[in-house]
Amino acid sequence: MSNIGSYEEKYKGFDWSFARKELGCKDSTPLNIGFYCSDRICQQGKGGKIAMIWEGYKGEVEKFTFDDLRIYSNNYAHLLKSFGIKERERVFIFMERVPDLYFSFLGILKMGGIVAPLFSAFGEESLLTRLEDGNASAIITIPKLIKKIRRIKDQLPQLKKIIIVTDDENFKSEEKETSFSAKKAKRVEKFDIFPGTFETPSVLHYTSGTTGKPKGALHVHSSIFAQYLTTKWCLDLKPDDIYWCTADPGWVTGTSYGIIGPWSLGITQVVLDSGFQVGKWYNLIQKHRITVWYSAPTAIRLLMKEGEEIVKKYDLSSLRHLCSVGEPLNAEAVTWSKKVYGLPFHDTYWQTETGAIVISNYPGMEVRPGSMGKPFPGIVATVLDSSYNPINKTGSAGLIALKPGWPSMFRNYWNNPATYDSKFKNGWYITGDRASIDKNGYFWFVGRDDDVINTAGHLVSPFEVESALLEHPAVAESAAIGKPDPINLEVVKVFVALKSGFEKSDDLELEIMNFIRKRLSPLAMPQEIEFVDSLPKTRSGKIMRRLLRAQERGEPIGDLSTLEND
Length: 566
Ligand code: WTA
Known about the structure:
β20 (about 425) and β21 form a beta hairpin. By secondary structure, the protein is α/β, with parallel strands linked by helices. The longest helix is centred in the first third of the chain and has 17 residues, at about 65-80. Among the domains are: about 65-220, 3-Layer(aba) Sandwich (Rossmann fold), CATH 3.40.50; about 450-555, ANL, C-terminal domain (GMP Synthetase, Chain A, domain 3), CATH 3.30.300.30. The chain is built from 18 helices and 27 strands. The radius of gyration is 23 Å and the shape is globular. The model has no long low-confidence stretch (mean pLDDT about 95). A 9-stranded mixed β-sheet has the order 2-1-11-10-12-13-14-15-16, with helices on both faces. A 5-stranded parallel β-sheet has the order 4-3-5-6-7, sandwiched between helices. Strands 17, 18, 20, 21 and 22 form a 5-stranded antiparallel β-sheet that branches.
């Protein structure tokens, strides 16, 4: 029997106070995610239970109990306070998936700080825009990544401390830096956890839009109610499960479902500090007897490419439930996984802004391959026409919109309330995605309604790529689009017009690619550069990315006069 039981019954008459009660949280109880993910589990007598089975890229394994989580997060909370970091100040984490990433995430929350995770693959420019916008008070990082921070720290006058996680006593710290290891530090048995309210800010996740700088979606501590219940009902986690979320905490899936959801339920999870590699992944499942697996379509397509034969070499019989997020999950991937693993991947849909799953396929409910499923209990979802009115015709595509009010909804964009306000129309939150709804209430994803590029589940802003390209001496102007890709859904392709005096060449192409990789990240690096004499523009001078995208996909270009008026 699945945790959710009957979806229809749970949807009817649902109230979020249900999740609050399950967590033992009253209106008047101080709320802190850090407490609910560690101390509370220990108070339930499960302090000795394994919280994290960590495997490094060399295959080394370390295990940590819930009591370890409690102590090590206390250590971080205490350390930050000792540096004078106050509640609501932004503490960024910039690490690979080392254990201290997880301890410090909870520690920052415990002392009332706002935790802002960053991808370890970010280049200096990506880092600087986020650290500047979020007014970082502190950064927690690792020796391998410190060079990137050292190169930009002079541009961050408000930065008080850089904490470098290392056991190496001879590590040479520079100005503002402190080296630290939670495991070696004096154990802080008791820490006065910051008594948050439902609306106390918790996590700041940067996400990319079409225009402007990356936006920091701000969440609050009561997001835990939605993260807890969606983990329980969509991922179906039960006390004896060994759970594996493949996402990096630089991405919202890695925090909502790689930290908060599973640990608020007291579940053991596996963390793998390395990227995709077929043998490594299957071996991990076999070795740790993983039961529930949350991954993404690009990874599933890579596994499909490796074929069925390799699957037979491993014992994957521990698996019992599979879920996916981040991109449209093609029907073939669902059918394939059913055939090869004996289990279908269950698609789940959500965004950084929604904080938790909002549309999903549930265990026990028929999976329609290719569909995202149905709205989670407590979520009212529909599709709207271009005037933001609900489309009451089944099968017609429109904008996916949600009725505001679920606990994990973002509360603002950091420093950008105007953009936040622009996301709400006629009393609906507009996701920026398009879908249709069939006669049985299943949602079918159609595409994004903007120019944001989704590469392997990671959103890349064309604006960020174009802005970075302008800094290259040879580039006069450019346009970045998503080019369809059989594995990654889309890859970044750029059209570049060169300044006079520069000639196109293979060397220049490579140089520009590397330029973006270093400044932004490997994900934002163009996989293809097309040199052009000029770019198509609207009458107001805006580059017509949509036209370039349609040409690239061999789609009809549409009415150029409307494009020109954009
Ligand atoms: C896309 C990731 C199709 C969508 C949790 C959304 C999906 C964006 C799905 C959010 C899905 C996410 N099917 N598309 N199941 N899940 N997306 O903010 O465009 O990194 O708006 O959050 O990914 O990406 P974000």
